[in-house]
Amino acid sequence: MIPYKTYTVKKGKHFSFPRVFKIGWKLKKIQWRVIFNEDCNYIMKDEKGEIHSDQKDWNKLCGVFYNMFNTRKNTAMMGWKYDPIKDKIDIAPYYHISGSTDWFRPMLSLNRGDELFLELEIDRISKKYIWLMRVGKNVVTHEMPFTHKKKLNAFINFYFGGNQKSPQEVSAKISMKTYK
Known about the structure:
Blueprint: E1 5-9, E2 16-17, E3 23-25, E4 29-36, E5 59-65, E6 75-83, E7 88-97, E8 100-103, E9 108-110, E10 115-123, E11 128-135, E12 138-145, E13 152-156, E14 170-179
Antiparallel strand pairs: 1-2, 1-14, 3-13, 4-10, 4-14, 5-6, 5-13, 6-7, 7-8, 7-9, 10-11, 11-12
């Protein structure tokens, strides 16, 4: 695996830095290792100072998209959000397929500082995205059919939001490896 690189979203922003634009061609598998830093314990507050409903919004962790001009079409992503009640980071896949957005319940919860291993297999024969998520001995998988025939992809970067910008600096260490 490639060494970790730290990606940071500054307070009041959506995008992480450094910004990375990388493309792939006919990839069969992508693996990520992720460690959420201690600053990922953000809390969204409403005007009364209470936890805002947007606390439940998903942020983007990583993934692929197959429409170079629209990350909301032909996309397989992994989402993350901080749950202040559990003091954990929740992880779940979500997709933009055939014009719809498909969200799933949290599939894993981890502590900041834990290493998360993610693997996305792009099975072009059965036309499925297959996610493997692992923290320690806890392993979860998820499959989603797709309809496109595209082979050129770009990668989703660490991103904050939902509709609101980051209430504080958040950062994660991420390493990625691709396989053809």
